[in-house]
């Protein structure tokens, strides 16, 4: 009787498990923008895993009102729903959790955003947590931006835009421009050429640009704008990924997405 000896194959395919770090991200239920942009920027051997949380201002297809109402913006980060979402996401074998939402931070200000992160950290089993505007604060400090041109989504009204300017002013940054970008309102309607043209015209004497709104398609224009303006260009999902990588200790350079993605403070 011949015994057949089983030999290990040498043709295993990548199954997505060979990762240096896994980042969990909380996104509004009908928003695919954060995941799309995070995955576009993601270095090899890092992965992103999303959990969806209902956002009352979004409808099927990712459509929103031309200007989003403020009550759902604040409600998105109030307990218990966000806390429960983060707690359940933290049951996964992750290395950091990131909340992909900008406008709620504008409503609560820097102190409220820091308090939110402290609150959510109680539910993460010890893994670090960050938010878009906390990440933006860290990026602005790292790059030494002191004069900021703030570009917000067209679905932010004037009040929400002004709250955004107040947010960064409270951090000691001189906001030299702020406005919702003059593009059609709605996630599917933003395109890189139009956003590029808008930002280049308003940068003025700024030493840095921040394009807020995780649902605003923006990361594809970062390099082109930096080459043109010769100043750092930050966007919501770019800073969120950068800070999450910093927190995991797995920060690696990611050419093509701005100066920030080649700067790391992790030792």
Q: Please tell me the CATH architecture by its name.
A: 3-Layer(aba) Sandwich
Q: Measure the end-to-end span.
A: 60 Å
Number of strands: 8
Provide the spatial order of strands within the biggest beta sheet. 2-1-3-4
Shape: globular
- Most strands sheet: 4 strands, parallel
Number of helices: 9
Structural class: alpha/beta
**Structurally, how many domains make up the residues?**
1
In the CATH scheme, what's the topology name? Rossmann fold
CATH C-level label: Alpha Beta
Poorly predicted segments:
none
What is the overall pLDDT average?
Answer: 91
Could you state the order of secondary-structure elements as H and E? EHEHHEHEHEHEHEHEH
Key words describing this protein structure:
Rossmann fold; 37% helix; four-stranded parallel β-sheet; 267 residues
Describe this structure in words.
This protein is of the alpha/beta class. The protein has one domain: Rossmann fold, CATH 3.40.50.12500. The chain contains nine helices and eight strands.
């Amino acid at each position: 009787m011949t015994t057949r000896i089983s030999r290990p194959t040498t043709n295993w395919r990548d199954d997505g498990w060979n990762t240096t770090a896994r980042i969990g991200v909380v996104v509004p239920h009908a928003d695919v923008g954060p995941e799309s942009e995070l995955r576009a920027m993601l270095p090899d051997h890092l992965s992103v895993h999303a959990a969806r949380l209902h956002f009352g201002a979004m409808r099927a297809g990712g459509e929103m009102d031309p200007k989003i109402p403020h009550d759902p913006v604040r409600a998105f980060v109030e307990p218990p729903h966000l806390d429960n979402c983060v707690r359940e996401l933290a049951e996964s074998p992750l290395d950091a959790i990131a909340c992909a939402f900008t406008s709620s931070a504008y409503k609560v200000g820097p102190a409220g955003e820091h308090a939110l992160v402290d609150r959510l950290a109680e539910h993460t089993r010890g893994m670090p947590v960050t938010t878009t505007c906390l990440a933006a604060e860290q990026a602005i400090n790292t790059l030494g931006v002191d004069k900021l041109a703030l570009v917000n989504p067209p679905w932010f009204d004037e009040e929400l835009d002004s709250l955004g300017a107040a947010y960064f002013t409270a951090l000691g940054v001189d906001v030299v421009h702020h406005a919702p970008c003059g593009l059609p309102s709605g996630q599917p309607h933003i395109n890189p050429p139009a956003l590029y043209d808008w930002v280049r015209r308003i940068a003025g004497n700024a030493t840095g640009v921040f394009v807020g709104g995780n649902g605003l398609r923006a990361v594809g224009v970062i390099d082109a704008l930096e080459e043109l303006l010769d100043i750092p260009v930050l966007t919501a999902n770019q800073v969120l990924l950068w800070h999450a990588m910093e927190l995991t200790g797995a920060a690696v350079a990611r050419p093509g997405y701005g100066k920030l993605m080649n700067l790391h403070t992790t030792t």
